[in-house]
UniProtKB/TrEMBL annotation:
Residues 90-222 form the GST C-terminal domain. InterPro entries: Glutathione-S-Trfase_C-like, Glutathione-S-Trfase_C_sf, Glutathione_S-Trfase, Glutathione_S-Trfase_N, Thioredoxin-like_sf. This is Glutathione S-transferase family protein. It holds the Pfam family GST_N. It comes from Pelagibacterium flavum. Residues 8-87 form the GST N-terminal domain.
Amino acid sequence: MAITITAFENSPDGGRGLARDMRVRWALEEVGLPYEVRLVSLKQMKEPSHLALHPFGQIPTYEEGDLALFETGAIVFHIAQHHKGLLPEDENARARAITWMFSALNTVEPPIVEREQSRYLVGDRPWYGELLPILEDRVRVRLDQLANRLGASEWLDGTFSAADLIMVLVLRRLEGAGILEEYPSLSAYVARGEARPAYKRAFASQLAVANHDRGTKDAKRQ
Ligand code: GTB
């Protein structure tokens, strides 16, 4: 069944793999499923046809036959449930991997996004200089705990799983913050994820959108 996902027409990160469609692209690449990408503008995301797919007017969405999904956690889980390679076969190991998926999304990601968003939301307030270190310390609390649990292991629980895929991309959201670098084991964990061939294919396909866009703009300027 053909799969179509949506992604930013103009990703604010210039295609550096930080937008959440990267999670879906990477999962599809890991299990070897081909997919189409429909690019949408910020305006189109708020129009009825996109809102019918995504009630919150965001990307990514996932269409497969008459099934339409939103929320990257659910999409990656759906892919992992139906194709080998992203969740262990053993029932308990599978349940633990799913637990880690939820913890990446519900426990580790929120303080990271809170810190990042604070600059856009209140970066111009006189007290922002006091708030930022507080938010950064909230991130460090989670990274300390995660690094303790990961120890010298390669992946969160045995072999690579959908949980690592999501956790690696959640940690990548710290790019430029100068915090992840305080945790050599977590930096190495992210690097291991980025070294996977499926990650590289997903990253290249997201970057190609931005490069194509730049090429088109350059051609128009000439
Ligand atoms: N919980 C949802 C999920 O996991 O699917 C969240 C989806 C979401 O946040 N989508 C964002 C979106 O559509 C794009 S990924 N935003 C537009 C809107 O809400 O109107 C968030 C994102 C965007 C850009 C960067 N970047 O450029 O670095 C990183 C992450």
